[in-house]
Amino acid sequence: MSMIGWRFGKYLSKGGNSLFEDLLKLFQELLIHTSGDVSEALSWLTELDKEHDLTNPDYGIADFIEELKEKGYISKDGDGKGLGGMNPTKKMEASLRKHALDDIFDQLKKSKKGKHNTRSTGQGDEFTSELKPYEFGDKLDKLSISESLKNAQINNGLDEFKLTQDDLEVHETFFQSQTSTVLMIDISHSMILYGEDRITPAKKVAMALAEMITTRYPKDSLDIIVFGNDAWKIEIKDLPYLEVGPYHTNTVAGLELAMNILRRRKNPNKQIMMITDGKPTCIKKGKKYYKNAFGLDKMIMNRTLGLSRKAKKLGIPITTFMIARDPWLVKFVDRFTKANNGKAFYSSLQGLGEFIFMDYKDNKRKKR
């Protein structure tokens, strides 16, 4: 348990929160790692309590479980695989997404990157530092009251105060572009290979991105798909329960599904983000799978690069986030990115959230 204690060390410190709130943060992290298994997460929490003295004589793990039930975070729902059939509730799922977003944005607070906007000014939502004279058609909610009153005093004096159209100034605003994003998550077996957990950071990023878009950019759309031997769409609520399977990596299936989804989206700005740790090793030929886990298979590569070029023609940039530095993977992503004229990031597991959020915001700055 020492490794687990180290991994979750940042959640063990008790600040100004109540004991329940401290335990809830840690429990949420454990739930993500256990793909929503309440029983297993509580078992880990109990072991961590024994090792790190998380609770006290007046409030133990049993009290925490009861409070989870009372506050609606877990409930008995059908054939739950958790404690006594307990499963996370919708309230817990929403809380998990907020937890993921807060956790990742802790990394971004020190960053001076831009907001979710284009470089162009217009009828937008974000004020710039610039002011301009009022023109017919400008919205009055963009009016700079203090500057307009100041102009009226200067132009007309204080004795006979009056405010005219010539005195009015309004804030310049950034135009916030609408974007349709498809996030592709690799769930092939290599995402947990050699004892390294790569799927949990990917899930946390997906949950945080989903929370950010749905709460802060409601006009945007986010579709999430997973790919192994095949590719399929999942709902936001399914993210905490995502698990790796005994799959190869069918990047072609993922890209085909992503582009089919984006064709139906009416937003002018479209993009694909792909989180993966391996090169493509599988394609489907008719009803059968063609697999080759060694090197860069020419047939698989040609299909994959062809889709990369097709996405470019459709105006869909692809950003690849690699959570491994396998030389075969690096070689593939280099060719793939050049074919699409997209972007690629070689990120660590710890830095994955920061990279993907910076790129999402930066892409929103571009007016296509």
Notable traits:
6-stranded mixed beta sheet, 11 helices, disordered N terminus, Rossmann fold, two-stranded antiparallel sheet, 3 domains, single chain, alpha/beta
Question: Could you explain the architecture of this structure?
Answer:
- The chain is of the alpha/beta class and 368 residues long.
- The protein folds into 3 domains: 87 residues; 54 residues, no CATH class; 186 residues, Rossmann fold.
- It is built from 11 helices and 12 strands.
- Strand 9 and strand 10 form a beta hairpin.
- The chain starts with a helix and ends with a helix.
Short description:
The chain is of the alpha/beta class and 368 residues long. It has eleven helices and twelve strands. The longest helix is centred in the first third of the chain and has 19 residues.
The biggest beta sheet is recorded as:
6 strands, mixed
Using DSSP, what is the number of strands? 12
**Uncertain stretches:** 1-6, 110-128
Alpha-beta content class:
alpha/beta
Strand content: 15-25%
User: Mean pLDDT, as a whole number?
Assistant: 82
Radius of gyration from CA coordinates:
25 Å
Number of H- or I-type helical stretches:
11
Task: Write the element-wise H/E pattern from the N-terminal end onward.
Answer: HHHHEEHEHEEHEEHEEEHEHEH
Q: How many structural domains are formed by the residues?
A: 3
The 3D shape can be described as flat
- What is the helix fraction of residues, given as a range? 40-55%
The CATH architecture of the largest domain would be: 3-Layer(aba) Sandwich
